[in-house]
Amino acid sequence: MKLVFATNNPNKLKEVQALVPSHIQLLSLENIGCTEDIPETSPTIKGNAIQKAQYIKENYGYDCFADDTGLEVDVLNGDPGVYSARYAGEAKDSNANMDKLLDNLKEKEDRKAQFKTVVALHINGKLETFTGICSGTITVQKKGNKGFGYDPIFLPNGYAETFAELPLEEKNTISHRAKAVKQLVTFLNN
Predict the structure, then answer these.
(1) Residue 12: its pLDDT value, please?
(2) Is the model's pLDDT at 172 over the cut of 90?
(3) pLDDT one-digit tens code per residue, 12-33
(4) 70, 131, 68: which is closest to 101 by C-alpha?
(5) What pLDDT digit, counting tens, does each position of 72-123 carry?
(6) Per-residue pLDDT for 61 more than 90?
(7) What residues contact 160, with CB distance under 8 A and at least 6 apart?
(8) Which of 1, 65, 182, 186 has the maximal Cβ count within 10 Å?
(9) At 187, is the pLDDT very low, low, confident or very high (cuts 50, 70, 90)?
(10) Is 110 a catalytic residue?
(11) Per-domain residue ranges of the chain
(12) Does domain 2-189 correspond to CATH entry 3.90.950.10?
């Protein structure tokens, strides 16, 4: 089975390919010749995931799934949330995003946060969504060089290492994206 994963992020593609069974071959946006920026104009994470999946289905005709992820910090009323990738500006610079978040939390004791991923699957004319959440806290400094995005400052509950310090195999047992993708795989297997 071939399925388009609506992403150009090679890290995300690698992470998700490790989670799906070998009989499912993932194609990236590059593989299908999609080079344009897919609009993400919804005010919600779920809305953006659905928007991306529908865009690929309508414009390229492929069964596909798309995800959107946000880091929601309690004391910041859920920010950066839907704006996580562009928190420090349109450049989508992970280090600038982390620096801005750490700066905004400088005087805060409550550093509880959660990563939330919604996967939207467009298959056989139907739309399904799957949500994964991983709770944790924001560290005071960056640690680790694995992963991507906010991984160096996110400490999952019950762990002494940030996402960026954990091996991919271990991260893939607890992460928000892994939880949502596992629901997707269960659905596809049924």
Answers:
(1) 83
(2) no
(3) 888 888 888 888 889 999 999 9
(4) 70
(5) 999 999 999 999 999 999 888 999 999 999 999 999 999 999 999 999 999 9
(6) yes
(7) none
(8) 65
(9) very high
(10) no
(11) 2-189
(12) yes
Q: Distance between CA 181 and CA 114 in Å, rounded? A: 17
């998700």: which residue's tokens? 16
Q: How far apart are CA 120 and CA 47, in angstroms?
A: 9
* Catalytic one of 37, 67, 68, 103: 68
